[in-house]
Amino acid sequence: MTIATEGKGALQVAPLARKTLQDEVYREICELILDGGIAPGQQVTIQSLADAFGVSAMPVREALKRLTAAEALTVVSGRTIGIPKLSAERLDDLYRVRIEIEPLAGRWAAGRIDAATLAELRAQLAALEQANRTGDVKAYLRANRAYHFTIYRSAGSTVLLPIIESLWLQISPYFHLLQESGNYRTANQHHAAMLAGLEAGDGPAVEAAIRGDIADAYRVLAGLFG
Fold first, then answer.
1. CB atoms inside a 10 Å sphere around CB 209
2. Does pTM surpass 0.85?
3. For the chain, which domains are there?
4. pLDDT band (50, 70, 90) for residue 77
5. What residues contact 200, with CB distance under 8 A and at least 6 apart?
């Protein structure tokens, strides 16, 4: 489509509807991965995703290209995708980056967070504690992601947030393995410390709590994949 402009030339832009659909499908698949909807070892076909979303295969295929390039998914066969295997080397690499990036977002959030967001975090922490008590892994994983990203969004950085999401797309499919070790209980202790730091406006305390949460999860996973 051509859009006239003042002066010389014209703007050439792609139709919005198609791009919007591709982005929506991409976001839906990201949400599926982040919430543990695709488990390691599970194979998913392009057509099954297209059918589930009620779209053609094209936007699904484009979304999967982006996610395989980001190493959030891997091609198992021509039309089948899955979660990449987690090696000890890959786990170490993800840990080294997460332990630097995510605590930084928490420190920034401490200086910007408002009362409404703190109230949201209190409700999310209650949901985390309830999910741990009942052993509801899916509910815990959803609440865990919501809690962390409420904090990370509060950092106010449109540069940092996509980097963190990219890291979570690569590691979060393995978070379900933490439950049997009792990690969810200790993680909630770190979550409570994050909230206390945010309420006090204490950036270093939030930073330390996030670092402890990431380190504890890493130790459990390293014992499984090391």
1. 24
2. yes
3. 14-82 (1.10.10.10), 88-225 (1.20.120.530)
4. confident
5. none
